[in-house]
Design a protein that fits this description.
The chain is α+β, with helices and mostly antiparallel strands. The protein folds into three domains: 42-48 and 214-305, Endonuclease Iii, domain 2, CATH 1.10.1670.10; 72-78 and 92-211, Hypothetical protein, domain 2 (Endonuclease III, domain 1, Orthogonal Bundle); 314-482, Alpha-Beta Complex (Nucleoside Triphosphate Pyrophosphohydrolase), CATH 3.90.79.10. Helices cover 44% and strands 12% of the residues. β5 and β6 (412-424) form a beta hairpin. 30% of the residues are buried. It catalyses: Hydrolyzes free adenine bases from 7,8-dihydro-8-oxoguanine:adenine mismatched double-stranded DNA, leaving an apurinic site. It comes from Aquilegia coerulea (Rocky mountain columbine).
């Protein structure tokens, strides 16, 4: 009798079959775990195919530049591009200075245009260049002066970066040394300037120095997404990187500044988000989204780029107290006159929302807080910060609730509850200088005329105007004290 060995699961054939099954199972698991970014990349590759063909590039460049020359908007920061045949190293010193001046003008305009409409920027740009015609003039300015010119334009961090950048670039040179000043000319060098990213650097390098580099902003993304019918998420990092590649393909090496401005201009005026004017678009013949919309009724041009849900704005609440201090020698009235009163202003922290800007005393509160709770929170703040005890009735002449105002930021909706507190202090405003001990707290008292020349945000100016309107309509004032200028 011959005994045969029992076959186990470890025989080579069985083991091979098990490995194959494991491999297939593993592949299935890997496929299931494919990250969203990878899926987005694959979809993007399908959308973009082989990028632009040479024929497409030539047609888009020629059509867009021709359209731009005839239809560009007249704005103060646009001038004819410098002669592109000149080699930078061979330029005379005077030409270098002119290029640096041009770069300064482009820099200021591009920073102002971030998140802001062209029509709004025009007057701000004119005032800015009148005040600081060169980068040396700007470098000698104070943050207070810059904030004053910028007031109302929003996103105040931009103004701060402009001043910091000017000081860094000038590096202590005097105005008489303008001829020896050279502005950075490359994207990498420009990106080292505070507040200058890849887009702004590309705009300066291409418009001022004729560097053949692309620019990509929201308008450019929209145009490119429609040209190639790209359905990938336009906010995704991989997608954004590909948009830069597309823009880099298209940029005209002979006149990159004009081409980049033309691409942005097209997105701002023709290829708009919701109502594109495809019938007059100079490059509709190369637009895949437009072509698809004509052959497929379920497709519209505005399907591109893909709509990304906006982050819901946070709703915050704050109590705002306009503290008006009457001169100790002034008349015994509740409101004072236009010359004998001062307002208390507090400087916000140097970091965060509205960094380093002046405002009336404000305290964040719970949304359900009523008037008494808001006043209690404000009283605690005034007592802790300024040793102002509102419980002492002999110093409080009047306290009135004025109303509320909703100020909207990009990510916050701030509901402000405004009140007017009129005080008479023993020793006048000098009381505050004697009592305030917090060295980190920056504050000042300004009179009615001075407050109109300070760089206040639109929200603070709105609060001030609310107070002045309230004093004119709700409080008994003589005719002479009713005259005031809104700010």
């Amino acid at each position: 009798m011959i005994l045969r060995p029992r076959l186990s699961n470890s025989t080579p054939k069985v083991m091979e079959e098990k490995e194959v099954r494991k491999s297939k199972t593993k592949m299935k698991r890997v496929k299931k775990r494919e990250p969203a970014a990878a899926k987005n990349t694959n979809k993007l590759e399908e959308d973009m195919e082989d990028f632009f063909s040479n024929e497409e590039i030539c047609n888009i460049r020629a059509s867009l530049l021709c359209w731009y020359q005839k239809n560009q908007r007249v704005v103060p920061w646009r001038i004819t591009s410098p002669n592109t045949s000149q080699v930078k190293e061979e330029m005379e010193e005077k030409d270098q200075y002119q290029l640096a001046q041009r770069a300064y003008e482009v820099w200021v305009s591009e920073i102002m245009l971030q998140q802001t409409r062209v029509a709004t920027v025009i007057e701000y740009y004119k005032r800015w260049m009148e005040k600081w015609p060169t980068i040396h003039h700007l470098a000698a300015a104070s943050q207070e002066e810059v904030n004053h010119i910028w007031a109302g334009l929003g996103y105040y961090r931009r103004a701060r970066f402009l001043l910091e950048g000017a000081k860094m670039l000038v590096g202590g040179q005097s105005e008489s040394q303008d001829a020896q000043f050279f502005f950075p000319t490359t994207v990498s060098a420009l990106c080292k300037v505070p507040g200058v990213g890849q887009y702004t650097a590309g705009a300066i390098a291409s418009i001022a120095f004729n560097q053949a580099v692309p620019v990509v902003d929201g308008n450019v993304v929209r145009v490119l997404a429609r040209l190639k019918a790209i359905s990938a998420n336009p906010k995704d990092a991989t997608t954004i990187k590909s948009f830069w590649k597309l823009a880099g393909q298209l940029v005209d090496p002979c006149c990159p500044g004009d081409f980049n401005q033309a691409l942005m201009e097209l997105g701002a005026t023709i290829c708009t988000p919701s109502t594109p004017s495809c019938s007059v678009c100079p490059i509709s013949g190369q637009c895949q989204a437009f072509s698809l919309s004509r052959t497929n009724t379920s497709v519209v041009v505005t399907d591109y780029p893909t709509k990304v849900p906006k982050t819901k704005q946070r709703l915050d609440f704050c109590a705002v107290c306009v503290v008006e201090i009457l001169d100790n020698q002034g008349p015994e009235t509740q409101q004072g006159t236009q010359t004998d009163n001062v307002f208390l202003l507090v400087k916000r922290p140097e970091e965060g929302l509205l960094a380093g800007l002046w405002e009336f005393p404000s305290v964040l509160i719970d949304g359900e807080a009523d008037l008494s709770m808001r006043r209690e929170a404000m009283d605690c703040y005034l007592k802790k910060s300024f040793k102002l005890d509102t419980k002492k009735k002999h110093c409080v002449l009047s306290r009135n609730y004025v109303g509320e105002y909703l100020h909207i930021f990009s990510h916050i909706r701030l509901r402000m509850y405004v009140e007017l507190l009129v005080l008479r202090l023993k020793g006048g405003k000098s009381f505050l200088y004697d009592k305030v001990e917090n060295e980190s707290l920056q504050w000042k008292c300004v009179d009615n005329n001075s407050i109109q020349s300070i760089g206040l945000t639109s929200g603070v100016r709105k609060v001030y105007n609310m107070i002045e309107d309230f004093k004119q309509t709700q409080l008994p004032l003589d005719s002479s004290s009713r005259k005031r200028k809104p700010i």
